[in-house]
Write a structure and sequence with these properties.
Layout lengths: L32 H23 L10 H6 L6 H21 L14 H11 L2 H14 L4 E7 L5 E7 L10 E7 L6 H4 L3 H8 L5 H16 L1
Antiparallel strand pairs: 1-2, 1-3
Helix pairs in contact: 1-3
Manganese (III) ion binds next to helix 1.
Amino acid sequence: MIDKYSVVYGVTYPYELPTLSYPFNGLEPYIDARTMEIHLTKHHQGYINKLNAALEPHPAYQDKSIEWLLMHLQELPEGIREAVRNNGGGHFDHLLFWDSMAPAPAGSNLPRGELAQAIERSFGSFDAFKKRFDTSALSHVGSGWTWLCVDPSGALEIITTLNHDTPLHMGWYPLLIVDIWEHAYYLKYQNKRPEYVSAWWQIIDWNKVAQRYEQAMALMLG
Ligand code: MN3
């Protein structure tokens, strides 16, 4: 049941940085080019390097997808479990983060179609959804990520996870994610996480989120 939710990217060892569909300055003024460059080429690359190093002596796990590894942490050799949890999570979460954003459209940035209807069904309205998402992201203490996911019943759920943990092991299919580690915003926003999250709403790629929603529902009905 849960395994059919395992593929979002399906990438395997050796892991590598994705090619972004927008330049480092493409999300300005909401996220600045310098933050994007450091975040991708230093932070994200660092997680990839450590993940590859952990898996290098373990060929049995090199053909497993990143999602499989994160869903089966308890089955991994104890010596690499925490490394995969932190750095594998770091890799997956950042893949989804880059893929949750796009240059801001002219005018308001809102979901449309079936995804918009699902948000209304699950949360009452888009504004109520946004308020709950913001509350989850802004009340979290420490580093982490806030997610919009589809749960195995098909309902939308919001969760904030600690460090690089994911909700994949619960069978939740991730649609949208925001990075609330300080490295995601400190250069431009310093300690002002609310201003960063508020800016981030302008650059959500709702088309990509809608595509993942369709994929999740197809997996569920399939
Ligand atoms: Mn980050």
